[in-house]
């Protein structure tokens, strides 16, 4: 309210009133500039050095990048991220949207069900990983239980199978985050403009058409949030892989995040770790920047 | 809090605001009605998904109530034969975490001291940022938002060493404020994203009308934006709380012996390298460590239904 | 000033509970649960009696890798802990960075040079100076066997590769699992250590894993070692992938499996399950490596905080090397003391055997660092080897390709 009165005062107040929004935004912007973009620059420089246990600045040119692309594990990690990332994002969005729409139908005990859907987010994967590992293990988990019920030929051994193990990571990852995506869509649904829906309903549109033509398009910003969150989770999936498969069988479930951590910290090859981080960021940028750009350009 | 604000909002006489009844005549479900058979299917699907989400919890709970011998003997999916609460007691107060046998108890406070300020500040900042970026647009605002957004994708492993150097330089290394700052830096992108995308759906005409009535920047935020921010604030708080509470990497790297958060303790309990693994205690500890977050979900979840002004303002 | 404070707090040891903060030591380690952390408490008590407070900074996970990440952040921030648990080549790496304090004075006073085995000193010293105090010696080339199964099938303790294969075959024919194993890279590598030692002998092991001689790495002997890994793979059950080592131990304990190839820390699982050495389970060296000890050793290094080693840091290091602590700690840990002049009468049969064999191997020069546990070559190379060993064990390479990949991977990591 102070602003209101001072705003009506002299030109000094006008200046303040005009600049205020930008002033409010500037601290956030400044810290991001330093602690995100400054550090990206630092990593970029590091990727051309011979850093091993700690950063050092003996420049070696492209050597780290050459080594990186010579490593079989890196190729596997990148391919796995593509499989894992796309499946994870699509499935989470589909389940999240479905559950949000269903839960928005004046469901009894909505709060209770919502909490059940959300709780996996609360648990740290350090331990839930063990529970999943047991559940997926053919010797003691689902396969063993179903067989003990009498279905002797039932087989579910993906986690032990190099070809299929990456999909078990998807199952566990979807379990963890799809509830949160549901919450994001639910928040979106609750903020929707009902006028158009009423109009369309009067015109005799079916429920399905109503959702497809009117509700879902309005959820576009929520989709964008979900996509960013999920892409972020997919790229950073580290705990999950370590707890569930440790990158195995063999190197079948290695992801760029586990690769980067292991080279930077476990293997004392910080230069290669930095190079992998740079490549990873550039890949993310190549996918995200056009997406963000097109999302932001279309203004109503 | 939300009720106070919405009361204030109606008093602001911008437009008569109808208080949303608790069981939502709001949003999309205000329009769509479903019939009997369809409802049965809906409940069935919802129940099925409940099973999917509850399964790992079942494994954890069941095994946290067994003696260790039953687990190592192979019955990992079965119900306990000997029910026991001692793993829970052990995880809470007597399990060996490092040199002292303290259980997880002393580490809870460390985590709470870190999480509460970090979540509060980043949510408020995110709301303000979102408000500026949608209702007080300026030249280049899209760029600013784009840069904030892309910051969400920075891998944390990458920032560890430079961040340690920075904290060391300003003397925040190994302190709780240092940890709060780190979480703030890497949480701001997301909270801005949530609020910005939510406020985008919010009718700008209301803001303009209030401006014409002479309301200032902060007044509009408090009286018009905040009361309708319930659902998204819930989403944002849940996200931030969960991430910060469960963070291990920063918590371990930027804390001292006296400020180690809960996750570090839980990790120490679970990941001993060559010791005997007490799975039952591990599961009990894990569930225990998740309780504060669950509490937040339950408490915050109520505001999902309450702060629903966005829909009804237009009604 | 600090000395005065330290002395003062010594004098007031009984009266001061928390006031002696000037002489506290902050210790970063990853012994966080169960017996080993309890054993560390002995050290804490010892220091408390001298008026020195113990600030505990435990970070578990990944056999110390999490703790090493934290250490890097702490050192970069200019806030290193007073003392840190380090393994093998990490000690050398940190010494190279100039981060470790010189412990010569403490070592000379304690006469470490005469009692610590040469092979261990190689890691405790850098450039001729002591930089770390060894706490224990783990040896990794052990076989743990279920005695009941062996007796029932009439299997004697195998002493050669062929006998081992015959024994495993017998177990397999009886319908039980021959080898309990967890498919994690470090576990695969632990077996590979023993297999290479058994196949090629000590000199070959040294040439391949320590000197990293490309000829040895790509040699027919190495190909044969990989062949033997394939043989062992045939005796492992189908669900081995990703299994934790202690669940594999449980299989031997429960009589589902006959053998486990694992370091001496596995003993704790057996004892904890109420099993008795020589009665319920047997411990013996991997066939063909009876005279050798492949080891890894945990050590504590002091990080520089100023120019000299502070009195409380010296006190900590001295306490770690004391015979009493070495004996009592290693009894709990399952390993053996890192000095050759103590009595281990209180140890169980396996522990006594392990200590005697370690002493013998130390005297004859048969004690050599374990590749699988980072005591033969630096982390970068070790992990590069893991990649190949694990891939081969999972059937991604045949033996010839694996040997060639090993040569390439080592070259790439150097």
UniProtKB/TrEMBL annotation, chain A:
The keyword Aminoacyl-tRNA synthetase does not apply. PROSITE patterns: ABC_TM1. Coiled coil: none annotated. Keywords: Cell membrane, Membrane, Transmembrane, Transmembrane helix, Transport. Pfam families: BPD_transp_1. It is a multi-pass membrane protein. Its main location: membrane. One of its GO terms (cellular component) is plasma membrane. The chain crosses the membrane at residues 23-48, 81-103, 115-135, 164-189, 270-293. Residues 78-293 form the ABC transmembrane type-1 domain. It is found in: Cell membrane. InterPro entries: ABC_transporter_permease (IPR051393), MetI-like (IPR000515), MetI-like_sf (IPR035906). One of its GO terms (biological process) is transmembrane transport. Gene3D superfamilies: MetI-like (1.10.3720.10). Belongs to the binding-protein-dependent transport system permease family. This is Sugar ABC transporter permease. It comes from Amaricoccus solimangrovi.
Automatic annotation (TrEMBL), chain B:
Signal peptide: none annotated. Residues 108-300 form the ABC transmembrane type-1 domain. InterPro entries: MetI-like, MetI-like_sf. Gene3D superfamilies: MetI-like. It comes from the Bacteria. Its main location: membrane. GO terms for cellular component: plasma membrane. It is found in: Cell membrane. GO terms for biological process: transmembrane transport. The keyword Cell wall biogenesis/degradation does not apply. Keywords: Membrane, Transmembrane, Transmembrane helix, Transport. The chain crosses the membrane at residues 40-61, 107-131, 143-164, 176-199, 220-241, 283-305. It is a multi-pass membrane protein. Belongs to the binding-protein-dependent transport system permease family. PANTHER family: ABC TRANSPORTER PERMEASE PROTEIN, GLUCOSE IMPORT SYSTEM PERMEASE PROTEIN GLCU. This is Carbohydrate ABC transporter permease.
Automatic annotation (TrEMBL), chain C:
The keyword Thylakoid does not apply. GO terms for cellular component: periplasmic space. It comes from the Bacteria. It holds the Pfam family SBP_bac_1. Keywords: Signal, Transport. It is found in: Periplasm. It comes from Amaricoccus solimangrovi. Its main location: periplasm. Belongs to the bacterial solute-binding protein 1 family. Transmembrane segments: none annotated. Part of a binding-protein-dependent transport system for a sugar. Residues 1-22 form the signal peptide. This is Probable sugar-binding periplasmic protein. InterPro entries: Bact_solute-bd_prot1, SBP. The keyword ATP-binding does not apply.
